[in-house]
Amino acid sequence: MRDKLLYWVPTGLVVMLMASGGIIDAMGADSALEVMRKLGYPDYFTTLLGVAKILGVVALLAPVPRSVREWAYAGFTFDVVGAVVSILSIGAPITAVTIPFLALVMVQLSYWMWRRRSVSAERPLVLPVAQPA
């Protein structure tokens, strides 16, 4: 029960954050475009990131191959690390990266708990005993 909670709480937060941000980005909302322009990115990059976030959310929630889910976690990691670096590179105060940094912590906690659950599900409960020849 504890492991499920430790997985689903951060995963739920990641899904909500990435889904809402992905929809806003994919729709090309003025607020999203304004932020991306301030960071120095072209407008089309906002749409690209939005679609990638939505696909990543689907990969976390749908029954997909292990490698697809790992790519989703990698993409979310690149997204939030890129956000931290981009925000700091324009001279914003360190407090401006609080939300992206917390998002990074949630992504990594979700990934770590998913790996822990999936590895333990693959382990046999009893080691096979060698049979005498």
Keywords:
5 helices; 133 residues; mainly alpha; 78% helix
Fraction of residues in helices?
over 70%
**Rg, nearest Å:** 19 Å
First-residue to last-residue Cα separation: 43 Å
SS-based class: mainly alpha
Number of domains: 1
Describe the overall structure.
There is one protein chain. By secondary structure, this protein is mainly alpha-helical. It has one domain (2-116). It is 78% helix and 0% strand. The protein has helices spanning 2-27, 30-39, 43-61, 66-89, 98-122. The protein is elongated, with a radius of gyration of 19 Å. The relative contact order is 0.13. The mean pLDDT is 92.
How is this fold's topology laid out?
Elements lengths: L1 H26 L2 H10 L3 H19 L4 H24 L8 H25 L11
Provide a short characterization of the protein structure.
By secondary structure, this protein is mainly alpha-helical.
